[in-house]
Write a structure and sequence with these properties.
heterodimer; A: alpha+beta; Cytochrome-c3 Hydrogenase, chain B; 16 helices; B: alpha/beta; Rossmann fold; Cytochrome-c3 Hydrogenase, Chain A, domain 2; two-stranded antiparallel sheet; 26% helix
Chain lengths: 447, 299
């Protein structure tokens, strides 16, 4: 029996609707539709290039700093293309990473406690009717604030902070500012040890077996229990192909991996497809989301991809047992959160305030006519900004967001990452949760 | 604990980045908020109502909070297979107050720039009256890109206490928008004595003359109540972008717009007054202000 149903996906960043094709009570194919369009790429045209640092964060309220950084890197690449490689001090690089990490820590905690846990509670029939009354939600919200305070100390505010400029950062923090940030971070680490991870951070980071997580009493292990009970250790699998194009302290250069073999990756093999979009055809298209492919293949991006290419022992072990299932994907995001806490503590401890925050470029941007690319590993995966400028003004701006990688619009023969992850399922509830495991951001997608 | 009748809130998004929602999630006293308010529906939170059950119900509520720019055009904005018009018509009739959270819902904001005829705020399109609706009596604008969580929550509290909120010509609460971003700026002394910031990345100097700071023309309490309880754009060495104003975002946000090499004058200050005073201040060289705030030599 074939039938088509229309479903909606609520409580993601933005909204998505699904058109599911069923056969013999199983999902045979899913059209993923993002119907709201804003057009930031068009709004940027004819503006001076630095406006991109202020305007692109408005693509997304939850990863605004990642967009600002991608725009800044794209501008710095423009200078480099024209022969001036900007000297960004270690201090400026570290502040950029601290702000980015604070945003990711916030994102992962928010995603788990605001989105994943309530869904799991609902599945397990634990009452959850009002976020504002839920003890765990309220505590997580406080940790989200602490994390964003770390950002704001350097970026002025969050969301939509301002601290970047081609040549470095605009802030010039005091030692007492850094201490304030360290204390915020310590509060989050204590919370994670007490609640999320159930053991000291260092101990968690030394784990190399899934059994060690499951053996501890923590919100993560309870979430894993519920996911296993509902079969998420075997469903939600996709192509087992991963990609991380942006820099990270955990690995060098862009990397891709198929299963466990890791190879270097290059942004030149990325292409964007307009297939099935309203941009290609206002009548036959069905979504505003473009698709991104690497060497014409779909690759998964995000924390799971980063953990896989950096050969994290714990996630490798989960992957050996449960492949790229929903369970592995959810755990990878929280495991990344633990790594980010440690890394950010290290950065704050070693931040050299004596260095300059900013070194002005020598070239006058108003004479530059060229192209630049900026890549950032954002919360949800590889984010690419590509800009063309003429006399310092934008002639073309192209943004490829992480969700475009994970939730593209494939067809029956070649479904995208998320499409493949839900094909063959028997219930919309499972599909809905699997979508959320990707931490979907339709806001970014339909910028 | 005594039971207080809670004010009910429904949160609806148009064309948005979710930034105002995420800013709201930074409100530090959520438990106190919960004592007085009940969020019936927020698109990012699991609650008792789903989107469909909200639409199908006849529940009335105290506040409809709008986030994002609005449009009647269903090819760019719809809500879960419903036209945005149907949804907003349905919900706005049931709300006592309509609160536009952020510059997009207030004026159209950034997204309006793509199509000024079709994308607007609720009652304004930029500075012009007449947006998604021509007229409506129960709307308050709380612009900002995003808004500060306290601007929203403090206003909601004032409304449930049935205080009369006095608003300016853009329907912004005067308690918030009579202030300027400039008020409380740590760089004020440099502004007074006309000491420019020589370059980004320093604590010293005013960002008004070269870096495009719009603090003296922008209505907000950013430097009075601070963001995330700790900072503000100018404290982080970046210029104010003027995000609470109807013309946000202007072009060339990191450059000071000048006329005959003179910058725009601060809000409500005549050119004659401003330039005379600026000329005098500039004629003095105040050595302390030319030095680094913390000079290594002093140690």
């Amino acid at each position: 029996m074939k039938k088509i149903t229309k479903e909606i996906i609520e409580r993601i960043e933005g909204e998505a609707t699904l058109e599911l094709e069923w056969e013999d009570e199983k999902i045979r194919f899913a059209k993923i539709k993002f119907m709201n369009f804003r057009g930031i790429e068009q709004i940027l045209v004819n503006r001076p290039i630095h406006d991109a640092i202020a305007i692109t964060p408005r693509v997304c309220g939850i990863c605004s700093s990642s967009h600002a950084l991608a725009a800044t890197l794209a501008i710095e690449d423009c200078f480099a293309q024209e022969g001036e490689v900007l000297n960004i001090t270690q201090k400026a690089k570290d502040i950029r990473e601290i702000v980015l990490n604070a945003e990711k820590i916030q994102n992962h905690i928010k995603w788990f406690y605001f989105s994943i846990l309530p869904e799991l509670k609902k599945m397990a029939e634990v009452p959850f009717n009002d976020a504002f009354k839920d003890k765990e939600w309220l505590e997580a919200q406080r940790m989200v604030m602490e994390s964003l305070k770390i950002s704001a100390i350097f970026s002025g505010q969050w969301p939509h902070g301002s601290f970047l400029m081609s040549g470095g950062v605009t802030c010039d923090p005091l030692s007492s500012d850094v201490i304030n940030a360290q204390n915020c971070l310590e509060t989050i680490i204590r919370f994670c040890e007490r609640s999320l991870l159930g053991c000291p951070l260092e101990e968690f980071l030394s784990y190399d077996s899934a059994i060690q997580i499951m053996g501890s009493r923590s919100q993560l292990s309870s979430a894993i229990d519920v996911m296993m009970h509902f079969g998420f250790d075997s469903c939600g699998r996709s192509y087992d192909r991963f990609l991380a194009l942006g820099d990270s302290y955990m690995y060098e250069g862009g990397l891709k991996s198929a299963k466990t073999t890791v190879m270097s990756a290059d942004v030149k093999y990325v292409n964007e497809s307009l297939e099935n979009t309203f941009f290609e055809s206002p009548t036959r298209g069905y979504t505003y989301s473009k698709s991104a492919l690497y060497k014409k293949n779909y690759f998964e991006v995000g924390p799971l991809a980063r953990m896989m290419v950096s050969k994290d022992p714990l996630i490798r072990d989960l992957h050996r047992r449960y492949k790229d299932s929903t369970l592995t994907r959810v755990t990878a995001r929280l495991c990344e959160c633990a790594h980010l806490l440690k890394r950010t503590a290290f950065l704050l401890e070693h931040l050299n305030l004596k260095e300059a925050s900013f070194i002005p470029p020598k070239y006058n941007l108003n004479y530059l006519t060229c192209k630049g690319t900026g890549i950032v590993e954002a919360s949800r995966g590889s984010l690419i900004h590509e800009v063309s400028i003429k006399n310092g003004h934008i002639t073309h701006y192209d943004i490829i967001t992480p969700t475009v990688w994970n939730l593209g619009n494939g067809d029956h023969e070649n479904p995208s990452i998320a499409q493949k992850a839900i094909i063959g399922l028997e219930s919309i509830q499972q599909a809905d949760f699997i979508f959320k495991s990707f931490d979907v951001c339709s806001v970014c997608t339909t910028q | 604990m005594s039971q207080i009748a809670k004010a009910k809130i429904v949160w609806l998004q148009g064309l948005t980045c979710n930034g105002n929602s995420h800013s709201f999630f930074n409100y530090p006293q959520m438990e106190s908020f919960d004592t007085h308010f009940e969020v019936l529906y927020h698109p990012l939170l699991l609650g008792e109502l789903t989107f469909e059950s909200l639409l199908a119900s006849h529940i009335t509520f105290d506040f409809l909070i709008l986030e994002g720019a609005l449009s009647h055009d269903k090819t760019i904005l719809q809500k879960f297979n419903h036209s945005f018009e149907d949804v907003l018509d349905n919900l706005s009739k049931r709300a006592k107050h309509i609160i536009c959270a952020g510059s997009c819902a207030s004026y159209g904001g950034i997204f309006r720039l793509r199509d000024e005829a079709k994308i607007t705020g609720a009652l304004f399109s930029g500075k012009n009256k007449g947006g998604y609706w021509k007229e409506k009596r129960n709307v308050i604008n709380i612009p900002g890109c995003p808004l500060h969580p306290r601007w929203l929550v403090d206003t909601l509290f004032q409304l449930i206490k049935e205080e009369k909120i006095s608003v300016d010509e853009y329907l912004r609460p005067k308690e918030i928008y009579s202030y300027l971003m400039h008020h409380g700026c740590m760089r004020n002394e440099y502004f007074e004595w006309k000491v420019d910031s020589k370059q980004f990345g320093e604590k010293e100097g005013c960002l008004f003359y070269l870096q495009g700071c719009q603090g003296p023309m922008t209505h907000s309490t950013c430097n009075k109540i601070l963001w995330n309880s700790v900072s503000s754009k100018t404290r982080a060495g970046s210029p104010c972008l003027g995000c609470t104003e109807f013309d946000f975002p202007k072009k060339a946000l990191y450059e000071t717009h000048t006329n005959m090499s003179l910058p725009q004058t601060p809000f409500g200050i005549s050119k004659r007054a401003y330039y005379s005073l600026a000329g005098i201040a500039k004629s003095f060289k105040i050595e302390r202000l030319e030095r680094k705030l913390m000079d290594e030599k002093d140690n």
